[in-house]
Each structure stands twice: as structure tokens, then as C-alpha cells.
Amino acid sequence: MGMFDVADKQETLREAYAQATVHVSAATIKLVKEGKSPKGDIVENARIAATMAAKKTSEIIPYCHPIPIDYIKIDVNLKESTIEVQTYVKTVWKTGVEMEALTAASVAALTVYDMLKPVDESMSIGQVTLIKKSGGLKSFQEKYTKALKAAVVVVSDSASKGERQDKTGKVATELIQQNGFAVEHYKILPDDAALIQAELKQLCDSQKVDLIVTCGGTGLGPRDVTTEATQKVIEREVRGVSEAIRAYGQKRTPLSMLSRGVCGVRGKTVIVNLPGSPKAVSECLTALFPGISHVYKMIEGHGH
Asked: Which residue from 256, 197, 181 is spatially nearest to 231, judged by alpha carbons?
């Protein structure tokens, strides 16, 4: 048990809103509005305490990750017999900020309690509530009325000859299935450009699969020809996908930049080139999903 491993997660915009309520007497509210509370400015001190608490949440809550916080907003509202603290926290990171927002609201309420306890023995802290949170990759998951079909093509001389067992294609198949695609085709080919082109065309034009993932043949070796074969098959290149895959990989290994894989569309089929190692394929598919799924709505003419 302990902190969750978020090393493989992607950074996305994440936001959280929380609220804490302190119940006080009407006389205490009047005292605060008149600036006569014995320990100073309640509102300003609550804001400062909440801001500090949000930034130090990982030091207070054992299993929270230390995260960069991009923005904090604290509102303190004086009602008829309550003091309400509303917190908003924003970050671009791998994990959410609901605990930061909740901690900020809680500490602000405790600060109000501490500052007013000499004058109000009936005071109590009410609910501390997460009002809303947003962000993360789940917010980009697409829903379709039809099942999306995928194919995995492993390009390897040794695997095609049976000299080694293919593990890369199995990793790709499992991860693609986990992201909602039915893998209906799996094939191992040698590093032969003509064979690769023919296979890709058949999958696009005859079987009409929605996604083709190739594994292997994207490097700079003398037999690495998958990229060239793919470029002759696709009708439109989608450079942002291959750039995102390399950018994600480069943060984990300095060798990612040597991959020449491309992504493109033929008809209504998306073709994505991935490297040949199981670890690299796992990382690349983590970067690929769920964003790549949105392309099918665009292909159908629905835009963004």
C-alpha cells in the first residue's frame, strides 16, 4: 500500500472546487463585519491559510502526490449565521487536485474557528464538501454507437521466421482492447516494404478496420522500412499523433527521438506506426489513448 504510481499518466488540465461552512451566531457575523474580531481580519487570514494549505497538502495527507499548483482562488462569504469558504484549485498535472481544494477549505474553516473561539462558544464547523472536479484523460473518452475494429501488424524478420516469440503484438492487442477496440486481425510480417504495403491496403480497403497499429521497423536499421511503406499507403498524415508519441517517450528514454514512426489516414482507417519493443509499445499506446478515438468523429464530418 502507498502512493499510486502515476509515472505513466499524461499531464492534463485538472480543476477542483470545494466548500467548508462554519456555523456562528448572528452577533459574531456582526462583529466580523465591523472588524472587531479579537484576532484580526477573519476573511484575509482564512484566505491566506487556505492558500498555504493547498500548497502543502502532500505534507499533511500521507498518500497525496506533491504536485505543481498553477492557480488558487479563495472566496470567504459572510452569511446570516454562517461563514462559507469556497476554494478553487487548478493544475496541469498527472493527478487531480480535489484533495488540495478540500484541504484548503478545511484549514480555512479551522482558521476561522481558531480566530473566533474567544467570542463564540456555540460555533461549529459544518460540512466540508467537494463541489466539483474536472480534468484527466477520462474526460476525453469517446462513446460510439458501433464497435470500433482494430488490427495489429507486427513487422519483424525474426518473429516472422519463428526464431523468436512475438511479445510486442500481444502487448499491443491487450492495450488496444482495453481501450474499447475489438482486435479482429493480428499478423506477423517480415521487414519487406511490398508485403507491408499490401497488408495495410487490404486492411483499409477490404476489411475496413478503424485502426491499424504496426509494431516494429520504425528505426534507422537497414531493414527498417515500415515508415516508408506506410507513407505510400496513407492519404493524409496526422503528424500531431506521432509527435505526441515521441514527446511522451522522450520523457522516459532519450532514444525515443530516433523513432521515425508516422500516423496517417487512408479512407476511414487510421494507421499508427509504433516501435518494436513491448515496453515502447506500452508507452506509445498510453500516449495514444484516449485522444486518438476522437478522430473517428472528425472523419465522419462532426469536427471537434
From this structure: 197
